[in-house]
Amino acid sequence: PQPRPALERAPCFSDLASLKMGVRTLSEALQLSDECRVITTGSAPFNIVHTNKAWSKLTGFKFTEVANRSNSFLQGPHTEAKLVERMRAASEKGETTRVRVVNYDRYGTPFYNSIEIFPLRDMAGKLTHYCGVLHGEDIPDGVVPPIDRKPEELFGSTSGSSTDPDEEEETAAAASGWPAAAAGRGAGRVKRLRRGGHVTLQEALDNTEDAVVMTQPHPPYAITHVNAPWCEMCGYTLEEVEGLSSSILQGAETDEALLSELMASVRRGESSSATLVNYKKGGARFLNQVHIQPVFNQNDEVDQFMAMLHEVDEKERPPHAAPAAAKKAGRRGERA
Fold it and tell me: Which pTM was predicted?
């Protein structure tokens, strides 16, 4: 039998009472935290748009494995159907709920999951996302048996399996309780963002087409979120880069002057673009057409910086490349 790694079941935060404070906004949900957090879309099938490092330590899954899927993969034969139904009913009503349910990690090991689910709303009161805060506890041996599953075969479409995608999604829909038509992996996917203009946290987080990295808006510009296309392009996982800065992509040929100009523009509330040399994990050099812009929260305050990356051929590099600041599109004064 395959060995089952011992995953982290210690509390993801110092005191369960901290949950009483709640997570009210998308801005709060995206803050760097030792809490185990997962953010989903605000409507069925509640596909995952963000997880953090603590969530990965608890469940054993990487963000790139679960992005744009529902949380049903954590369920198993001893997951209490009544509690799952309670969570679903509360989510349909846009209510906060808390349950203690049996879930299963990546390797099929059961654990008690005390999860509180918070609805996240914009300034108009519209529900946009949910944030789940998890607390895992070991289950004593013999109480709940583990299940035998191979992590590399859990998601056929991402593991190279020959599983039919439609069949896979029907299975996932059955496990989650949502109709197959609504529970597909691509359900709720949004189109890529237009460059420039006023970009909200919701728009930036829901972008599943462009390679996106989001950071705190102040030095050292710690990374709060990267999406699956960014991970695929750069070779890093979200779990590896959370809390680091985008300097991990810099190297010998990266133009520091270009970077300084880009950051100066975005600090002024402007969007800016440039083509510069970056480096992937492992040191592979690539030409990056990067567009950086501020991202605004529900109070119209700069909450994050966002960069959209596009890998281009060397022949596309403009001579003596210089940043093209999109000032007319990005200035907040011109949005009024």
Answer: 0.80
